[in-house]
Structures are given as C-alpha cells and as structure tokens.
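User: Here's a chain of 391 residues. Predict its fold as tokens.
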Amino acid sequence: MRMRNLWPLLMAGSIGAMGAQAALAEDYQLLVGSYTAGQSQGIYRLKFDSATGQIDPKPLQVVKSDNPSWLTVSKDQRHLFVVNENGPGQKDPVGRVSSYAIDPKTHAISLINQVQSLGNEPTHSSLSVDASHLFVSNYSVVEDPGGTLAVLPVGADSALKPVVQMSSHPSSRVNPERQMSAHVHSTVSSPDGHYVFSNDLGADKIFVYRFDPKANPQLPLTAATPASVQLPAGSGPRHLLFSADGKHAWLTMEMSAQVAVFDYRDGKLEQTQMVDLASGQPTSDKAAAALHASADGKFLYVSNRGTANQLLVFAIDPATGHLKELQRRSVEGDHPREFSLDPSGKFLLIANQKSNQIIVVERDAKTGLLGKTVQKLPMDAPSDLKFLVRQ
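Assistant: Prediction complete.
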C-alpha cells in the first residue's frame, strides 16, 4: 500500500529529472569552413543537438565562398570574418578576406564585403581585443613571395578596410622543402590586447609586436622587445593559445609534433616545458595542428595529423600551465585539421579534412577523457568548426 502511494511521487520525480535534463540540452548552430576544390561550396551552417551529439545533415544555410578555410567569430557573435585561402593554380588565384553579418536571432549569415589579403593562401585570422583590426596570416605555399602578416582595419559596420600594414621576416632554411621562405601560420593577440604574436613556420620563430593603432593608424604594429621568440630548428610553429587567466600559453609546432609551454607576462614568453606528441615515431607521424582548452581550463586537447591521426588529451597544472598526458585517441579519419568542443562540454567535434568527415565523440567533463564516437557526418574537406550560441 505504501509503495502504491509512493509510486506517483517516484514517477513525478523521474519526470522532473528528465525535464531538468531536457532543459539543460540545447540546439546550437555550427559553422563549418572548408576547402572548395572538390564538392564543397563554402561555409555550412548546421544544427547541433547537445543532448545527443548529433549534427543535422541538412544545412540551415550554405554560403558559397572560395576556400573559406578559417572562421573568426566576433565576441558578440554578430560578425564573421573568413579567410579565403586562395593562391596560384586555384580557381581564384587571389588571397582574400570576407566579412559577414550574423543575424542575432536566426544566425543567418550575409556578406558585408570582401577585400584582398595581399598575399597567397591566407590561412588564419584573428581580431584584436578591441575588435578594431583583423590580423591575417598569409601562409604562401611557394617560396616567392613567401608568407606575410597583413593588418586590416575593421569599420564600425564591421566592413573590412584595405590592408594598412604588412610584415615579413627571413626564414630559417633548416628544412629545404618547407622552410626556404616565411610561412606565417597564425597570429593572435595577448589577453590584454597590447601585444600581437605571429607564428612563422618558415622562420622557427614567434614574432612579437606592440599593438597601438592610436599612435599610428597606418602602422599599428611595431616590433616589441624582444622582437621574437626562438624555437627549435626545424620545429615549424603553428598555433598559439593563451590560458584563460593570461599567465600561460601553449604552442603547437607542426613539423616536430611538439607543444611548447610558456609563462607569459608583459609581452614576454618564457618556455617552461616541451611536450612530444610523437616521440620516437617516424617523421610521417609528425604534423601537429590544432589545440584548444576546455572551458574550465583543466584540459588541453591537441591534434596530430600525418600518419598518426590522433587527438591527445592533457591535464593542465593550474599553477604552471604544464601538461600531463592523459589519453591518445584515434580520430577515425585522416588529417584532423581542426576540432571544437561543443558549448555543453559533452562532445568534441573533429574536422577530418582528407577523409571528408566530421566526427563527433563523447567527452567526460570531469576527467577530460574522450569516449565513443556518436556520429560520422560526411562533409567534403572540412577545415574549421565554430559554434554559435544564443545571446
């Protein structure tokens, strides 16, 4: 009799719990950048279910664009900046950068304008902390003219203005196949916005600049002191990420498949640790790429391409920023150029560029470990993944 009386209460509690879980789940929108030499048309806007980890294969929008390989979303999520990684021998041989407006309610994307990057194969962009300038990294596959950093002012309407400053440096020439000229791979601002760090794969250096557009609008970057950070010969720096508190930074070095850990203060990076992603493995296993930290700052995730095709999980020491390896997981595909943690923190999405898939895997928020694969979505040459959340 008591059980009969309790049953409705137990059921009510169960339904309440399910309702709470449902309330926590949310449909987000996912932007996918891609290379367009094959079947891809450009940028795809997709629906993502954070309860199941499923991407709806039917796009909400397809934005036709040539090689929109890297996507930069403004902090307020009202604007999107895209590098068009064009160059000699491609359908469009001119490197370009595009600005789009994002509708705050629907997240629909509409073109504002497009300008030239004044370099070949622009592969990365980032906004200054005050959103007044866009830093574009022209990688440039060929030796002549080589890679450059381009600085573009951003108008009040987020329209891009023509390049106002270019910067380039001599290469290290350590690797005769890949380092005979500069190859600027990415450029990011310091957390305080006063410095800019440009990673040059061809030079084996991070170049450091002071950013002060008020002092000289036509030359907003000036060399800092010291003007560069020397890295191991032939290492090929790629992407730099600052910790949320701004005290540490991590750098992937593509050619040596390593992650360098730094202390950061007032424009200066001091290396404190070097982590091997493919120690003792053949050169074909060495192609470090993307790195992202979890929202709570406890875990760092790094992709290694080549023949390794792995995602590595590290625990972050909160005091030092040092890394402790926790897991190596196959990406179940080829060439994980980029990846992204979904806003709920329960899933990690991997853009396997050469196997033409986006892989969704479960993630344990407490341990940081990656679990089973929940979806393999066919997508031609995906190169970047960015989430949009409701404001």
